[in-house]
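User: I'm putting together notes for a lab meeting next week and I want to include a structural view of one of the chains we've been expressing. I don't have a solved structure, so I'd like a prediction I can at least talk through. The sequence is below, exactly as it appears in our construct file.
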Amino acid sequence: MELKIEGITKLYKHNTALNNFTCDLNPGIYGLVGPNGAGKTTLLRILATIIKPSKGRILINGKDITLNEDNYREIIGYLPQKLGFYRDYTVTKFLNYIGYLKDVDKNEATDKINNLLNLLNLDQYKDKKIKTLSEGIKQRIGIAQALLNNPKILIFDEPTLNLDPKERINFKNIISRLSSDKIIIISTHIISDIEYLSKEIILIQNGEKIIQNTPVEILKIIKDTVWEADIKPNSLLELQKNFSVTDIKNNGENIKVRIISEKKPNVECHLTNPTLDDLYMFYFGLEGN
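Assistant: Thanks for the context. Below is the predicted structure for the 289-residue chain, given as structure tokens.
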């Protein structure tokens, strides 16, 4: 299976949200990374056919999805940043309703829902009204509805938002198991959620793709630009004025910091292996806040 995004542009009255965005995707997990306002959500909404592009096209196995959008929608699962719920529905009733909308076979729907409730640790909430549940539990319900039709393409916009550490790990384990025969696109600000899962990382800025590559290859870009130093707490502010400082940790009397710089900082420091968090700061810095 191949999903091709060809020259997608999205124009609004006073803004270009996407500009000639192009990439090819095959089964595996893709991390979509960029600062707020970069165009990530717009791209995912176009992929989910919620909005239409101003220019460009999307092809699945060489065929333009606009030729048969209904067939395309049957193979996608989408979790938006903010999913609407019928608050008075129970979890099971809501998932049954989504199954109906997705044309899931009635004879299979109950088993599929029960399996997902178990998979996402939602069994104890299945008869609870959604309005009584926490945001973290609602997020897991959102993940369940995205998986309900066993889609070939999964589109997640900030899927681990509001999840506790245990459920974030569970989510990562689930999508890792699913990725062998599905295209999974994850937009997230929690870089650790995708660092060791992603087949490729796609960096987006100002509506344009700036790079797409494997985590190993993409980190080579910032080789010899990440430094570690132990500094006195009272020298941190001055260091931050001159350099991009990340990952500040208490280290007894001193603090350990990571510094992103193409030249050696003017403190006692040593080069260290870069991470995707470092890559994010290298490209986006304070823009990502």
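A couple of points you could mention at the meeting. Residues 89 and 97 are 9 Å apart (CA to CA). The chain has two domains: 3-219, 224-273.

User: Perfect, that's what I needed.
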